[in-house]
Amino acid sequence: MSCRDPHSYTDLDQGRVTHMDLDLNVDFDTQRMSGTAILKLAAPVTGPLDLDTRDLEIRKVATPDGAEIKWELGGKDEVMGSRLRLDLPAGTQQVVITYATSPEASALQWLEPAQTDGKKHPYLFSQCQAIHARSVIPAQDSPLARFTFGAKMTVPEALTVVMAAAPGEAAPATDPGRRTFSFEMPQSIPPYLFAFAVGNIVSRDLAPRSRVYTEPETLDRAAYEFAEVDKMLTAAEEVFGPYLWDRFDFLVMPASFPYGGMENPRLTFLTPTLLAGDRSLVNVLAHELAHSWTGNLVTNASIDDFWLNEGFTVWAERRILENLYGKEAKSLAAAIGRNGLDEALAEFGPDSPFTRLKTDGKGHDPDDFYSLVPYEKGFLLVSLFEQAAGREKFADFIKKYIDHFKFTSITTEEFLEFLEQELPGIAAKVDAKKWIYQAGLPENAPEFTSARLEMLQNLARGWSDGLRPDPTEAAGWSAEDWQIFLQELPRKLPLDDCRWLDEKFHLTEQGNAEILSNWLIIAASSGYEPAFDRIRSFLAEVGRMKYLKPLYTALYANEQTKTMAVEIFADNAGSYHPIARGGLERILAS
Ligand code: BES
Ligand code: ZN
After folding, report:
1. 263: Cβ below 6 Å to ligand 1?
2. Omega prior to 130 cis, within 30 of 0
3. Per-residue pLDDT tens for 400-430?
4. Domain residue spans of the chain
């Protein structure tokens, strides 16, 4: 029996979809995509083949020569969606599914022109991780089922399609006023990395292997912010070995994109909140780039092994930062991470199973238990392995690990077995099983300190005793300095203190989204009214959950601003991505 993914109906013993050819028409009026998906199987299959779907309208299933195939769509499970069971005639190797997506497709956000930078054209994008690909394509939607694909997408001729794949040509469609874009994805991907966007999208080359895509209005800022991409790519190849996806292009998304970044292969998606104007938030680009190895080449078998994706990637992200900007940059980043981890652990509670690295997510929506735990607890464990093995040996191990498991999806246990084989005794030395299978943070967690970090922490921790930053000095603080300082301050400050901070450092007018969001959380928890308008406008502008969730939580927890939270949400819910909307509804219902 093959390994089963608790979040998918996929049964690889039935057969395996290894290639998909899509031909889809994008209709902005009805907010539907419709057309055909041709699924090619690794070997002929007879009998049942189960696929994942969510809100898909299945119109017809047939063999390539048109003979109808029997199918049955199961009831809708809130977490998993609906099982599509095909009953394949003897020896079937290809299936043609004619279908349409729903306007409610959980992976898709259809934007009105007003929600774009240019305000003239509509926009559509996908976000499939963790289990939303099934709302766009009928698939074995498990990271265990990698596939290659070809895709044709037909859209209004004023719009451009970009996809996490190699672009082919764009040609006039048979329908007047429409164009068809073609793509090929030669490297096999897990379904959650299927991604595309449609809009008024232009691009600029930044390096031989990298190009930035964005709406025209944002192109200059984006090109400036990410100009260092090639240095990152070189640094990442030093850590991991060769880059195997040909190109590393990226797309700066409309503001409603619910994440900081998404590592879609050959086309990373990035939030525009990274455009701080001073390259201070480029760690997210380094992070998504690092996923090209840890995540996209070596992939978690299911969301329960998510830490293999994120923990290693955060470790690599910080190694890249260290190569580019030095040790202190790494310590500060690790400290920011540690603050986030402590908050997540406190929120879940000390014994929560979701604070284990290996989770048991069956029956739970991955979007519900998404947290910094796999990222930051994972980072700490990988750092421990590195310390225990020694930097040189671990560097060799990482390259070997990638090479050994590339283009496969693995469980935590497979990783541990490989670790034991390559670095015997290391896992036991750091008590890896405790880290992986037990809740909370073990005592041997590595600490990352630096003189600067301690200075900032001491300053913030002395706040209640009257300690204050020197305004001239603090005016020269970096974005990381501010993040650490604000994160370490008490959440609820006396109004006079809020006023002092705001007058001295103009925090409410901050252009850096990390600093601004940390400040607005304090302002919300403290009931500092002069920042309320900015809170309203920020929550209307951005869709990144990292900012929305804590800010709504802070507003909702404060009796003074509870109704304000509900009102702001009512005003903006329609412009949030379905995934973000769902997450916020849960916060505001608690
Ligand atoms: N792959 C994740 C985003 C993701 C995770 C989307 C799970 C859906 C489900 C991406 O690589 C990521 O971790 N993004 C972070 C950036 C980061 C530097 C930690 C984010 O969005 O904030
Ligand atoms: Zn990540």
Report:
1. yes
2. yes
3. 999 999 999 999 999 999 999 999 999 999 9
4. 17-197, 201-292, 293-449, 451-588
